[in-house]
Amino acid sequence: MIDALADLKAIIEALIFASPDPLTLKILLKTLDDEPREHVEEALAALRRDWGDRPGGLQLIEVAGGYQIVTRPELHDRVRRLFHEHSSQRLSVQALETLAVIAYRQPVTGPEIAEIRGVNTSGVIGTLVDRRLVKVVGRKAVIGRPFLYATTREFLDRFGLKDLTDLPKVEDMAEALGMEVPPALAADDPRDAALPFEPPPGIAAGPGGGAGKVH
Fold first, then answer.
1. Shared-domain flag, residues 112 and 172
2. Residues 113-126: pLDDT tens digits?
3. Which of 34, 62, 81 is a domain's end point?
4. Please, how many CA atoms are within 13 Å of residue 3, restricted to the half-sphere of its CB?
5. pTM above 0.90, yes or no
6. Do the strands 66-71 and 134-139 form a parallel or antiparallel pair, or are they unpaired?
7. Which residues are CB-contacts of 149 (< 8 A; sequence separation ≥ 6)?
8. Are 95 and 186 in a shared domain?
9. Strand runs (DSSP E) across 43-174, as ranges?
10. Which domain holds residue 46?
11. Residue 72 and residue 137 share a domain
């Protein structure tokens, strides 16, 4: 049994490492459909304990509803030097500010975002959609039926968040981005909201439905 558990841990570890996206328990069970669920869960729990005690530059984390092996946060600057990220791959300050508004006010329309930021944001929203950080989750039942935007699981993964309850206080986020907190944004706490991966009740589903990319 010990050898079998060790073998299963090794398989799960390899699958998590090889997956380009956070690997969920559901996908693990589907991939390892010849193994009893309890064995997979036991091996996964043992693997997480092993990694919790493991020194080194990597860590096993739970993010966006799955598991991923990543570099430790304190080493990010060193790792970035290796890849020499092009400026085109980075989000602009304007895009980060818009993303923050969406994250803390979701679901939110383009006009509402523009009102909070005080500038036209249609082009920036398009960039965020292209980066799969934001998606359309429906239309608001008002004149013109504008699209409602919310963050995706890709957003959670990119920023290392387990779910929206992991978002920092809006004041801390604003300070990190070098922006002032608009009063309308400061009034909301995303930790009181459900994950916006499905359209809120009473809101029509937008293009592509309510499900976002999850890893």
1. yes
2. 888 877 777 788 98
3. 81
4. 0
5. no
6. unpaired
7. 102, 106, 107, 108, 109, 110, 113, 125, 129, 134, 135, 136, 137
8. yes
9. 58-63, 66-71, 108-109, 134-139, 147-151
10. 2-81
11. no
